[in-house]
Amino acid sequence: MFQPQPTPYSPFSPYGLTAPMPDFPGFQPAGVVDNGGPTQFRDPIFSPVASNSINAGAPLTFNHNSNSHVAQRFKMDSNDIDAQEALARDFQPALEGPLVGEKRSSLAITEEYAKADPIYVTKTSALPQKYSHYRPILGDGNCGWRAAGFSYFETLIRLRNKAQLGEEIARMKSLDNLLKTAGGFAEWVFEDMAEEVTILLRELADLIPQSIPQAEQVLRDRFNDKAVSDSIVYYFRLLASSWMKANPASYEGFIQNGAGIVKYSQEWLEPPNQEIDHLGMTLLIDALLKPMGWAVEIVYLDRSDGSQANSHIFQQEDANGVPTNPAGPMIHLLYRPSHYDILYKDHGPPITIPQNMNIQVQRVNSLSHRHNIQNTPAMMGGDMSGMGDMSMFSCIPGFSLQPQPPSHHGFPSQYQQPLDQAFTPSSMSASMSASMSPTSPGASSATAPSNALPATFPAQPPPPSSLTPPTLTTPHPTFPPPTTQLPILTHLPAPHRPSLSSHTSLSGHPLSSELSSPSSASSFRPSKYEWEAAAEWEGPVVFQTSTFKNSHYNVAHYNNPNFQPEEWTPESEDPPTSGRKRSS
Amino acid sequence: MSGPKTASSRTPTKRILTELTAFSSAHSPSSPHPNILSLVPLPSNLLSLRCILSGHTLPPTSGYTTGRWLLSIQVPPQYPNQPPTITFVTKICHANVKWETGEICLDVLKENWTPVLGVVGALESVVRLLGEPGVDSPLNVEMGALLRQGDTIGARGLVGYWCGEERFEGHLDEEEEGGSNREEVRGRGKR
């Protein structure tokens, strides 16, 4: 067959256009071609352009040759291979659209995969239930870096904390030192790129107090300006490289083929347009996002088995693997083999509320509000109006606004008595605030079973604050501190207190004892994400009220091993529609 | 709004200036760079640079030891995210340099470019390429053929001959752009 090597160069001393001409008339039939081939076609260096020009210059010679079609075909083949190799070498995938796209519904991903492999269909149809929106990133080889970088700035906007942006500017400045010392990069290599990061941070810091949409617009504009965007992305590459060089022991083992830190950095991190690999993403998260206490969830959409895309959460953890900042903001990235996009969990159009930030704020407000009620009975009139919106909690099944006898609250009587004697509404308010202090007994008793089962976590020591008298006199300190993540969201065991049994002994009413348990503080309106978490929660759930047992908030059926949730699948929908089509 | 725009538009210029400053401070006339004898921008355009390379540190077997070449460096507006275009102005006989145009076929100047290199790093790679020609995709097919045949003596002779014939004898000074051009013309005339 056709053999490219070795190539005899001697017949064509001035190699190129003039020499091969005389050889064409003596062109051999196909059989001879197979045995070794004519010399002029054996040369792989022969550029297609040169061959074409020969062809154009010698049409007559070819036509007189009886085997011209063979030669022609052979020539075509050789050209085709050359051309294909050249095409493959220079292939640039068609890149359309902006570097960072507009946020859109993640149903678009489902539609995109509707006709793909069944595994993809299943996984992508499950995706929009968890992640409402996604933002496509251009696959130019920088997508992972750009997605993480964009999310970094976007989350800073989301948090609306100007001071934090100031801290970030300072942190970036201090990281210059890391790039110089650990990274070994000269300052002129990165100073312009670092400046772009700082400029953008400063711009956002100026805009955030005025207009969030404007800040988001600026961020999108900057990230779609190729010069700025690439500079920022490249800065992150250098940052990741420096971070790895500063902590070689943590990462060396993850480098494949034993390339070593420096070689890995040169081959995978430093070349622009080189796709980010898993180690690169880990480095970027470790260097850029983890120090801020942020978490990154990467959802892997691939053809592995399962009904949902696998996901992994990168976050700062202590020695026992417990997240140090579980309430921190989380960035979601969607990984499809060799490509990253950004995912969002929220429904609201432009601004996402990171986790339960707002819920905490409201909770703190209402607490201070109630604190006033208790301390200054004179303000009761005004506070009763505020009580109006609290009455909405009565919608929660199992929640009771009925005044309880004071002794049932577990409060020391010396505090309660004066209030009760002052005027009648105050007893109402006191009992209300007491029974309200857990704020969502229904949700908490359903999803955080630990308070109902003290024996489940016997090793966990009770938080000391819950046992001190002040926590009982005012409901305020009994609440978890605002930084505490909702137990349902984090899958952490709810703060459990064995002291509960003593509460129960104090109060005859089982519900009130549960209500007064500070651990049941939780969100008022459970979102469906919480319910998903609740589904994953492994633990027995005990219900104490008949009201709640029949409520749709009751998730006890999740504990039934035979429980099969009703699921919509496209396949199940198909037969009826096709049948309809046939009938019509 | 205007701040970032100016920042991004001045990036190549500023970076080139800092690179040049770093180069000249690291390589004073008393301790010159072994291969890069001078590197100056054109007075008219900071993003067009000229450079003189010397081959005297290269191994004698390469044949380039006596060479001295003028190169032109064009810095694209997207620099440093895109590589500079480096071409030999002085003719050089090398498997990976096109004889007619002086175009250089070197991966780090194309798909393997990294901003970490900078102009000086790119020029150093060019010098390294002189000592280690790649024969897989030669731009100069005659040289590639000689090397593939293993005719190193012939190749060295050819290289040495052209190094002597085309040797760039001029000097580069920012204010003497005309002078360097004249040298260039003289060099061509000699051929």
From TrEMBL, chain A:
Domain of life assignment: Eukaryota
Catalysed conversion reaction: Thiol-dependent hydrolysis of ester, thioester, amide, peptide and isopeptide bonds formed by the C-terminal Gly of ubiquitin (a 76-residue protein attached to proteins as an intracellular targeting signal)
Gene Ontology, cellular component aspect: nucleus
Enzyme class, spelled out: hydrolase
Keyword Isomerase annotated: no
SUPFAM superfamilies: Cysteine proteinases
Molecular functions per Gene Ontology: cysteine-type deubiquitinase activity; ubiquitin binding
Chain residue ranges for the region called Disordered: 398-524, 554-584
Pfam families: Peptidase_C65 (PF10275)
Ranges where the OTU domain occurs: 132-346
EC number: 3.4.19.12
Alphabetic keyword roster: Hydrolase, Protease, Thiol protease, Ubl conjugation pathway
Alphabetized PANTHER family for the sequence: UBIQUITIN THIOESTERASE OTUBAIN-LIKE, UBIQUITIN THIOLESTERASE PROTEIN OTUB
UniProt name for this protein: ubiquitinyl hydrolase 1
Organism field: Phialocephala subalpina
Lineage, broadest ranks: Eukaryota, Fungi, Dikarya, Ascomycota, Pezizomycotina
TrEMBL record, chain B:
Source organism per UniProt: Phialocephala subalpina
Keywords for this protein: Ubl conjugation pathway
Keyword flag Oxidoreductase: no
Compositionally biased tracts (Basic and acidic residues): 179-191
InterPro entries membership: Ub_conjugating_enzyme, UBC, UBQ-conjugating_enzyme/RWD
Domain UBC core as annotated: residue spans: 11-168
Name this protein carries in UniProt: Related to ubiquitin-conjugating enzyme E2 4
Region spans: Disordered: 172-191
